[in-house]
Design a protein that fits this description.
ten-stranded antiparallel beta sheet, globular, alpha+beta, 2 helices, 2 domains
């Protein structure tokens, strides 16, 4: 086989691999649950910057116990990091200590009202166009991300929105 033919065969194999991955992601988006999740803006310390928003998902936690540290040199983040299984119930993403399917490491945080929430340790990156104007959050507004929850692996972001006075408005970038 000539070198040109080997190169064309290798290129065709790479194209098939990329197309199959794209087809799997589109299939998951069509068949797996989608849900809006409250998020916290996270600015990664990364030398590679792009036009994206990096967000940590914040979700209710069920069945976990928040541990208080009585030692000064122990980080709260360290003792409250746990593996959580993600499930969609009643249109909400929930973190649980046991389950099947999609799982990730979360930080358990105790809110002012005493409830425990899980904050995903691995942020999701929402890519946006270069010309997009991302509005700053005003007091009383929250950033939300719509995600697909795959059978395995982390949630995959679809789009972002801003919730104001209980009304969620997806952002449209042109």
């Amino acid at each position: 086989m000539k070198v040109v033919h080997k190169g064309m065969l290798l290129g065709a194999i790479q194209i098939v691999i990329v197309l199959s991955l794209g087809a799997k992601l589109l299939y998951d988006r069509a068949t797996r649950p989608r849900v809006w999740v409250l998020c916290e803006v996270y600015d990664p310390d990364s030398p590679i910057r792009g036009r994206y928003l990096s967000e940590r998902l914040r979700m209710p936690a069920e069945g976990f116990t928040h541990r208080e540290s009585n030692q000064l040199n122990i980080s709260d983040w360290l003792i409250n990091s746990q593996r959580a299984y993600l499930e969609v119930r009643d249109g909400q993403l929930i973190a649980r200590p046991q389950g099947t399917g999609s799982a990730q490491w979360v930080y358990l945080h105790k809110d002012h009202d005493g409830s425990i929430v899980a904050i995903g340790q691995e942020p999701v990156a929402v890519f946006i166009p270069d010309s997009a104007d991302v509005p700053s959050l005003k007091p009383g507004q929250q950033m939300w991300v719509e995600v697909t929850v795959p059978a395995k692996g982390p949630p995959r972001p679809i789009r972002i929105g801003i919730k104001t006075d209980g009304v969620l408005t997806p952002l449209k970038f042109e």
